[in-house]
């Protein structure tokens, strides 16, 4: 059973950076596309970024294009989200998720989810 765990969240000022990590355990993620999502309590979950199985293709939400970069290291069973130029509206709980697909799209139905990590951008 694949288990995902996020880390790297925290408090940061606007314009700052954070790197989130998603660690996989229990199974390899070599066969899974991975997505990052975020959610503010009381609001719908939003897809942020998505990366294909081999890392060759990525997709980003318009709200984070040019600021966030998703990457993966299959040898380490890890996926990352580098977040730069953070804004207060990026404040949310961030989740990584896996789906057994080659390519990635945040519209997919993801099968495995982590517990989330809080990111707070404050002035």
Could you name the key traits of this structure?
about 120 residues, 7-stranded mixed beta sheet, about 50% strand, about 0% helix, mainly beta, 4-stranded antiparallel beta sheet
As a whole number of angstroms, the C-alpha radius of gyration is 13 Å
Helical stretch tally: 0
Quantity of strands, as a count: 11
What is the ordering of alpha helices and beta strands?
EEEEEEEEEEE
Give the averaged pLDDT, no decimals.
Answer: 96
Q: What fraction strand?
A: over 45%
Distance between the termini: 41 Å
Shape: globular
Structural class: mainly beta
Biggest β-sheet, characterized? 7 strands, mixed
**Helix share, percent:** under 10%
Q: Unreliable runs, pLDDT <50, ≥5 residues?
A: none
What does this structure look like?
With 123 residues, the chain is mostly beta strands. It has no helices and eleven strands.
Topology:
Blueprint: E1 3-7, E2 10-12, E3 18-25, E4 33-39, E5 46-51, E6 58-60, E7 68-73, E8 78-83, E9 92-99, E10 112-113, E11 117-121
Quick gist of this model?
The chain has 123 residues and is mainly beta. Helix content is 0%, strand content 48%.
């Amino acid at each position: 059973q694949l288990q995902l765990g996020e880390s790297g969240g925290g408090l940061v000022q606007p314009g700052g950076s954070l790197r989130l990590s998603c660690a996989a355990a229990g199974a390899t993620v070599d066969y899974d596309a991975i997505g990052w999502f975020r959610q503010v309590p009381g609001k719908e979950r939003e897809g942020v970024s998505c990366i294909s199985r081999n890392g060759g293709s990525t997709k980003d939400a318009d709200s984070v294009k040019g600021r966030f970069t998703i990457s993966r290291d299959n040898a380490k069973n890890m996926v990352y989200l580098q977040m730069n130029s953070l804004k207060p509206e990026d404040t949310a709980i961030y989740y990584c998720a896996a789906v057994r697909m080659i390519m990635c799209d945040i519209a997919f139905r993801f099968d495995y989810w982590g517990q989330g990590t809080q990111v707070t951008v404050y002035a």
